[in-house]
Amino acid sequence: METPVREPTFLILTALAAEPLHGYGLITEVARLSDGRVSLRPGTLYGALDRLVDAGLVAVEREEVVDSRLRRYYRLTDHGGELLAAETERMRRNVEAATARLTTRTPRLRGGTA
């Protein structure tokens, strides 16, 4: 998987950078990290997790049975951490460039001539 990554993928990797999480924990953490802008449905999340596991960015940490249901915890792999760091740096540089441009921006006059 190459950068740039899509925002939901970035947020999943970011959520897993702190600790292993199960599906519902990931859904909750992604919503928190995005201030509610990104709301993952279970089908979307598990499809993304399957792709991330296949790419070697995320791995299954452990499984446990809770209330007769299997709960699978996922963790960020070293490769996933490297991708997240690279993507974070790419985004940081973009923000830095935009911030520099905005601070030198000349305000436009409104409503006619001066």
Automatic annotation (TrEMBL):
<dbReference type="GO" id="GO:0003677">
    <property type="term" value="F:DNA binding"/>
</dbReference>
<dbReference type="InterPro" id="IPR036390">
    <property type="entry name" value="WH_DNA-bd_sf"/>
</dbReference>
<keyword id="KW-0238">DNA-binding</keyword>
<dbReference type="Pfam" id="PF03551">
    <property type="entry name" value="PadR"/>
</dbReference>
<dbReference type="InterPro" id="IPR005149">
    <property type="entry name" value="Tscrpt_reg_PadR_N"/>
</dbReference>
<dbReference type="InterPro" id="IPR052509">
    <property type="entry name" value="Metal_resp_DNA-bind_regulator"/>
</dbReference>
<dbReference type="InterPro" id="IPR036388">
    <property type="entry name" value="WH-like_DNA-bd_sf"/>
</dbReference>
<protein>
    <submittedName>
        <fullName>DNA-binding PadR family transcriptional regulator</fullName>
    </submittedName>
</protein>
<feature type="domain" description="Transcription regulator PadR N-terminal">
    <location>
        <begin position="12"/>
        <end position="85"/>
    </location>
</feature>
